[in-house]
Amino acid sequence: MYRxxxxxxxxxxxxxxxxxxxxxxxxxxxxxxxxxxxxGSEEMSLVCWDKYFTDNAHLVDLTRLDDVHxxxxxxxxxxDFVQPDLLLFxxxxxxxxxxxxxxxxxxxxxxxxxxxxDSEAEQAAKHILYATSPITExxxxxxxxxxxxxxxxxxxxxxxxxxxxxxxxxxxxIDLTRLAL
Length: 181
Prior knowledge:
Elements: E1 3-4, E2 7-8, H1 9-28, E3 33-34, E4 45-49, E5 58-59, H2 68-75, E6 80-82, E7 86-88, E8 94-96, E9 102-105, E10 109-114, H3 120-130, E11 137-142, E12 147-152, E13 155-156, E14 160-161, E15 166-167, E16 173-174
């Protein structure tokens, strides 16, 4: 089995994801939307237009919807989706389908923690998809390094490291230093 510095890849992924969720809940004291467990047993997903692995895929711009009610009640379940490790809607509007398993909109922050199982094509497709929102900050961590690649829309920001507290463009600080390799 693949191991990252004495820890299995799965364990490191769970530790990084779990600690991110905990930090956001502690700091913000409000609901966050994650790819896994925080909101109960159902998995959460982020809706995108068109097919996930095509150049046409993009996140849903709620400001361009003519009928938000129709979108929420019928269309949202038929669209393709991805499941990032962490989604944060703080300032930007979000729509939920009736089952609360899919969300649409431009998140304030998306975090992906890539493992050895994620192909380069899948990583590239997610990056292209998340960059379709000009206001969404998206971070990419590889679980066997301390590097945090950061973007807002299609603009690259300075990389950060897990050895120092992480700070979003909106000033939210996330201290993951205890998980640094």
